[in-house]
Amino acid sequence: MTSVKLNPFVPGCGGYVYDIGVVSSPTSLSVINNVTECIWFVEAEQSDKGIFLKRNRSTNITTCDGHKQLIMTISMGKEVVMETTGKIESPNYPAAYPNSYDYRWNIITSPGTKIQLLFAFFKTQEMFDFVLVYDGSTVNSRLLLEKSGYESMPFTITSSSSELLVRFTSDDDVTFPGFLAVFSTVKAF
């Protein structure tokens, strides 16, 4: 991938971020210049696609994927679960999940254990709405599962450590019931 460095779109507020970078609040320079929006272009290594971020004074983040000519607002959330057993489910399950959604569950158990995640139900929009499971606490951890569509039989994923990250994303089109997953701890050998 070739990276081209661009100057910030507004000094002290936005710019081009690639490889590693920081997206931060406006600096005093942008406040002095009465800037109400900061815009960044982020080149994302994980998918090798560009992500356009636009932050204003609202609580929403607006993104535009390089493959769509559509700007959408994404509800972002993260939940840290520190239990030995439990369940996670897509928003509104068993009703349809919302459009344009990105949510993460970070499951953490005791050291010396692994996490077993049983998907009891799974139905998302094929090729557009995904569940991703990472073997660790970040999206840079090893990817264990990237799944969309329908699965008629329950299936299990097991981590190699005491941390697991589950991420659910939906696009702006069709929605389904999503998923229901139950997790438990097993001893690591």
The span between the termini is 40 Å
Query: How would you state the average pLDDT, rounded?
Result: 75
Strand content is over 45%
Derived structural class: mainly beta
Please state the second-level CATH architecture of the largest domain: Sandwich
Q: What is the CATH top level name of the largest domain?
A: Mainly Beta
Strand order of the largest sheet: 1-2-3-4-5-7-13-9-10
Basic shape = globular
Number of contiguous helices: 1
CATH superfamily of the largest domain: Spermadhesin, CUB domain
CATH topology of the largest domain: Jelly Rolls
Gyration radius, in Å: 19 Å
**H/E topology pattern:** EHEEEEEEEEEEEEE
Count of distinct structural domains: 2
Unreliable residue runs:
1-8, 45-50, 54-75
Biggest beta sheet summary: 9 strands, mixed
Can you describe what's shown?
By secondary structure, the chain is mainly beta. It folds into 2 domains: 14-70, no CATH class; 76-187, Jelly Rolls. It has 1 helix and 14 strands, in the order βαβββββββββββββ. The chain has a 9-stranded mixed β-sheet with strand order 1-2-3-4-5-7-13-9-10, with no helix packed on it. Strands 6, 8, 11, 12 and 14 form a 5-stranded antiparallel β-sheet that branches. Helix 1 (28-32) links the parallel strand 1 (14-17) and strand 2 (38-44). The longest helix has 5 residues, at 28-32. The N and C termini lie far apart (40 Å). Mean pLDDT is 75; it is low at 1-8, 45-50 and 54-75. Keywords: Disulfide bond. Residues 64-186 form the CUB domain. This is CUB domain-containing protein. It comes from Daphnia pulex. InterPro entries: CUB_dom (IPR000859), Sperma_CUB_dom_sf (IPR035914), Spermadhesin-Link_domain (IPR052129).
